[in-house]
Amino acid sequence: MTPTESTDVVVIGSGFGGSIPAYRLAAGGARVVILERGPWLTGADFDHDLKFGSASTRVFEFTMGDGMNVLGGNCVGGGSVVYFAAMPRAPRFTFERQGLLGRPLWPRSVTRDVLDPWYDMVAESLPITRSEWEDVTYSGGLFAAACAHAGRTANPVPTAVDPARCTNCNWMMSGCRFDAKRSLLLNYIPAAVSHGARVRPLHEVQHIAPTGDGGYRVHYNTVDEVDYRVVTGTGTIDARIVIVAAGAAATPVILQRSQEALGGIPEAVGRHFSGNGERLNTAVIDEAKARDVLGLDRGDGVAYEGYQVGKGPVCASWDRLDPDLPEFSRHSLEQLYFPPGFGTILAQVRDATGPSWFGVEKKEMLRRWRSWLTIFIMSEDGNEGVFGPPPETGNADRIAQQMLSRGALRYRPSEQTRAGWARADADIRDILERDGLARVMPWTDEVIGAYTVHPLASCRIGDDPATSALDDRHELRGHPGIFVTDGSAVPAGLTVNPAFTIAALAERAVPGIVQAALDRGVPVRYVDAPPRSAPEPRPTTPAVA
């Protein structure tokens, strides 16, 4: 039998919610171990192809649920490796939302004013920069021109991208081989390692149990680096503090599986899941109209044909983020590049005489793919997702060596959520179909249901124990010393990309975690210095660092 290890802090997951407290605690003198179920890839590992075994299949996890599907990160760095690096702050009205409950969803202690200093800390640490119009790509410029033509406003999106390093290759969703995208691989993680934190890739946590002396024992499996279904070993680590940051589709599952050992968990664990109100529309642009109506010219006789050129979201319209509008009618619209695969399969033909998502008409639509423009909706949903009983191992039942699994999430969008999607769809058509500029159609949800790349709220902070699994310090109710700091702690959809808010909330949670560690006998202090920004080479032995 392998002996149980001992440390001060175990962090489960290495995305924004995990790496930020890992760095702060390690810099403050605590012994920190980070357990990550995915591989540790950096720089040159991020291939520019979709072949099996490439970064595109290794670092993603596509979890199919009942009515909701989640695309997230599965690697050291978590969602920061696969995100588009769009980093807007959440609108002020977000923190006043009441949702379907009809009462405040956020704790009274968390407001935009309270969170702004923590946003500032993250912005300095990554760093995050304001984009200018000269940084905007063809697709972003096209969307901005269409918004102006429709009498709307558009804005460059603030990003965590180094423009001097960016080559506009548009592969940033599968990691960045040029280290232009400021993922956690370039800041918080190497800084944590430099202070002694140990990163354990290919370690999948199964459950947490009390040790009897006020601490916790974390049980994990190690998995094969090629076939994640293959368990190569097991182990346990004892710690005084456990930070669960495995993502909104995995954190509640780990806690559900820990229920018996922990002697019960809050009823709100695994409930109130939000897909951030997300939805996608594909517009097929008429190139002649782009030239004649919008006056666009790339300088080579082509108006647009630039769908694949550039980077992810660089331009957004925030006209509907109006605090005076009623709840469930507010949304943002963001130009987006979604790589081949899901995007080409789920894009539908407008006014098709046959099937809208396959067939002759779809083939013609695909022929014109360089003239596509994808618009991403982030709206106010009703937190309708619920997780069922957890699988025997992992957060979902894997049905392929990499990337694909089936989870226990059930999602039935409410009337309010659907009405919000319909209003946003109409908004996109009003902008892009004027004067025959484009034909627009939402992605189908008939094949796989709704989908999100920004899962939230499955283990959320709040004031009401009946609807929030965590208190306003991110501590699991009834279990002192267990904290949740990832997207599952965010109480509701934000109407904008949530990475910045997740990171700011994680920063805000750290002082409380430090105090809890001190109370439990861990010699640690709070450190507010920004992390060192430098890439950290992958260890020669990936399983143990």
Short description:
With 545 residues, this protein is of the alpha/beta class. The chain contains 13 helices and 21 strands.
Report the structural category: alpha/beta
Helices, by number, come to 13
CATH architecture of the largest domain: 3-Layer(bba) Sandwich
CATH superfamily caption of the largest domain: FAD/NAD(P)-binding domain
- Indicate how many domains the architecture comprises: 2
Query: Could you give the distance between the termini?
Result: 22 Å
The mean pLDDT is: 93
The description of the largest β-sheet is: 6 strands, mixed
Instruction: Identify the CATH class of the largest domain.
Output: Alpha Beta
Number of strands: 21
Shape descriptor: globular
- The parts where pLDDT drops under 50 for at least 5 residues are 539-545
Kindly report the CATH topology of the largest domain: FAD/NAD(P)-binding domain
C-alpha Rg (nearest Å): 22 Å
Task: Walk me through the topology.
Layout: E1 5-6, E2 9-12, H1 16-27, E3 32-35, H2 55-58, E4 60-66, E5 68-73, H3 79-82, H4 112-125, H5 138-149, E6 155-156, H6 188-194, E7 198-200, E8 203-210, E9 216-223, E10 231-239, E11 241-244, H7 251-257, H8 259-262, E12 278-285, H9 287-292, E13 315-317, E14 331-336, H10 342-346, H11 360-367, E15 372-379, E16 386-387, E17 397-398, E18 404-410, H12 415-432, E19 438-442, E20 450-452, E21 482-484, H13 499-519
Parallel strand pairs: 1-10, 2-3, 2-11, 3-7, 4-18, 5-20, 11-21
Antiparallel strand pairs: 4-5, 6-13, 8-9, 9-10, 12-15, 12-19, 13-14, 14-15, 16-18, 17-18
Pathway: Steroid metabolism; cholesterol degradation
Keywords: Cholesterol metabolism, FAD, Flavoprotein, Isomerase, Lipid metabolism, Oxidoreductase, Steroid metabolism, Sterol metabolism
Domain FAD-dependent oxidoreductase 2 FAD-binding: 8-40
